Automatic annotation (TrEMBL):
<keyword id="KW-0547">Nucleotide-binding</keyword>
<protein>
    <recommendedName>
        <fullName>cyclin-dependent kinase</fullName>
        <ecNumber>2.7.11.22</ecNumber>
    </recommendedName>
</protein>
<feature type="domain" description="Protein kinase">
    <location>
        <begin position="1"/>
        <end position="161"/>
    </location>
</feature>
<dbReference type="InterPro" id="IPR050108">
    <property type="entry name" value="CDK"/>
</dbReference>
<keyword id="KW-0067">ATP-binding</keyword>
<dbReference type="InterPro" id="IPR011009">
    <property type="entry name" value="Kinase-like_dom_sf"/>
</dbReference>
<dbReference type="GO" id="GO:0004693">
    <property type="term" value="F:cyclin-dependent protein serine/threonine kinase activity"/>
</dbReference>
<dbReference type="GO" id="GO:0005524">
    <property type="term" value="F:ATP binding"/>
</dbReference>
<keyword id="KW-0418">Kinase</keyword>
<dbReference type="Pfam" id="PF00069">
    <property type="entry name" value="Pkinase"/>
</dbReference>
<dbReference type="GO" id="GO:0005634">
    <property type="term" value="C:nucleus"/>
</dbReference>
<keyword id="KW-0808">Transferase</keyword>
<keyword id="KW-0723">Serine/threonine-protein kinase</keyword>
<dbReference type="InterPro" id="IPR000719">
    <property type="entry name" value="Prot_kinase_dom"/>
</dbReference>
<keyword id="KW-0539">Nucleus</keyword>
């Protein structure tokens, strides 16, 4: 499991090849540890409720959040803190019932804070410019029970990726021009705060 999927950890080559970066938090699925995903906007509901045992579903949720951000042109769940993050999720997906998410009441932090009941907001309203096939795929990633989220291998075969407009061939993509060393201002002051932790 990667456990820290977010837009900053997705690298796209000039030829359109997507690569994952920053495997510092990656773990084998058999090893369970508290998630230290630094950016809460991509944390799954089970992690927000304090799950100590989890699976690849946390990465699938993050993929859904990233996909939703591409469709929405901004983060879907921009929580200011962990409680607000959970509130953001509940306010869009709606308050889950025990039928929707039977495992929720077994999570360590479930029922520590009571949230008002929310009805779900249709993703068509949140991402009005998205195609129906994009919305259908998004809905399969962003579901409460981890085991109900679409698997990555299945998602790659989703009709969304075979609907018009079709993806451009990598040879058709515009290639960004690289700056030569001569174009950099070598006399510019260096911002040392970028290197301090």
């Amino acid at each position: 499991m990667h456990r820290d999927l977010k837009p900053a950890n997705l690298l796209i080559s000039p030829t359109g090849i997507l690569k994952l970066a920053d495997f510092g938090l990656a773990k084998r699925p058999a090893i369970f540890a508290p998630s230290r995903n630094k950016l809460r906007w991509y944390r799954s509901p089970e992690l927000l409720y304090g799950a100590r045992k989890y699976d690849f579903g946390v990465d699938l949720w993050a993929i859904g959040c990233i996909f939703g951000e591409l469709l929405n042109h901004s983060p879907l769940f921009p929580g200011q803190n962990d409680i607000d993050q959970l509130y953001c999720v509940l306010s869009i997906l709606g308050t889950p019932s025990s039928e929707q998410w039977p495992e929720m009441d077994t999570l360590p932090d479930y029922n520590k804070i009571q949230f008002p009941h929310h009805a779900s907001v249709p993703f068509e309203k949140i991402c009005p410019d998205a195609s129906p096939s994009a919305i259908a795929l998004l809905k399969r990633f962003l579901v409460y029970p981890s085991d109900k989220r679409i698997h990555a291998s299945e998602a790659l075969l989703d009709p969304y990726f075979f609907s018009k407009p079709l993806p451009a061939h990598h040879l058709e993509l515009p290639i960004p021009k690289c700056q030569s060393r001569e174009q950099f201002d070598t006399d510019a002051p260096v911002d040392l705060s970028l290197f301090l932790y």
